[in-house]
Amino acid sequence: MVSRRLKIAGGIAIVAVAGIAAFFVIGNKSDDAKKNFTVAMVTDVGGVDDKSFNQSAWEGVQKWGKSHDLEKGQNGYNYFQSDTQADFAPNFQQAINGKYNLVAGIGYALHDATINAAKKNPKTEFVLVDDVDTKKTKNVVSLMFRSEQSSYLAGVAAATKTKDLGGSSVGFIGGMHGNIIDAFEAGYTAGVKSVDPNMNVDVQYADSFTDAAKGQTIAKAMMAKGEKVIFQAAGTVGNGVFTAAKDNNQTLTADSKDKVWVIGVDMDQSDMGAYKDKDGKKSNFTLTSSITGVGRGLELVANKAMKGNFPGGTVVAYGLKEGGVAAPTKYMSADEKAAVAKAKKAIIAGDIKVPNHPEGSEFDQNF
């Protein structure tokens, strides 16, 4: 989930649509009808199997391609993997050389590379995923997600669970400060406080999106303080959080009050919470996930571009109302599900305004 950004200025045109995003490229082989698009995706560091942002994006691109009877490859859909940030520009160039017409960048880390490529190739359409092009470049659409809304629901579930267990504190582990990670933190904190204004939110940052060992260390420290629910929004750092929780939970029965629950990010990470308790009983400790529908967003933008309706120079934003973000309830208790459903309804109705940055943060998004 390495994604999320520079300071975003206000006054940006917004297009509300149902969907979500990744870094990809789509080529048009017909001047008369936008048919036979080809799609390529340039990833952020982490690869398409990162169980997070890149993977969600790639799954969306694959689904889009197959829905148009395309195959993986230059004449269909593809991706260019970035192992380091130094790969961004060369990967964009590969996409351009492949004559793809629609190119998208996965995550805020690709902001500069995406805009630079767009300026050099004005006839190509670009998607900047999870960040905003404040210059409103005509051949760039900014694809954003209201992650604070799904994080609010995660906070409601976390606080409800913690209250039921007799606790008074929950954990949050972020990767690095920025517009998006701060939005996760702000939404989560607001959700927790809506259930219990006096509940503590223990916020820690790893200053990394790749150091899983550090994530494990921070999680263990939180667990030692009695925190039973931890939300990780930190890329592969979060893998370490899952490891720490699993190590703890495998020594307990599945219904133990000492069981630690983890909240996933970007994708439904319930598969990472699957384990066997000390009696060999299958169980799960992923309470929910703050899902960003990147793949769905890409599908929607790609289809718009195919029809000649590419929303260049605007921001396309997805929230709960549009189905762009979500928080699954499969592993929640009945009380948690009820509390989350009530909060979701209120957010969609506009009765709850979820903050997208912590108080005092310089990262104040306005879109």
UniProtKB/TrEMBL annotation:
Regions that span the bilayer: 6-26
Listed GO CC annotations: plasma membrane
Superkingdom field: Bacteria
Bilayer topology term: Lipid-anchor
Domain ABC transporter substrate-binding protein PnrA-like: 38-355
Keyword Signal among UniProt keywords: yes
Coiled coil, from the record: none
Cellular location(s): Cell membrane
Keyword terms of this UniProt record: Cell membrane, Lipoprotein, Membrane, Signal, Transmembrane, Transmembrane helix
One of the Pfam families matching this protein, by short name: Bmp
Keyword Transmembrane: yes
PANTHER family named among the record's database cross-references: ABC TRANSPORTER GUANOSINE-BINDING PROTEIN NUPN, TRANSCRIPTIONAL ACTIVATOR PROTEIN MED
Family: Belongs to the BMP lipoprotein family.
Name of protein: BMP family ABC transporter substrate-binding protein
Species whose genome carries this gene: Weissella confusa
Lineage: Bacteria, Bacillati, Bacillota, Bacilli, Lactobacillales
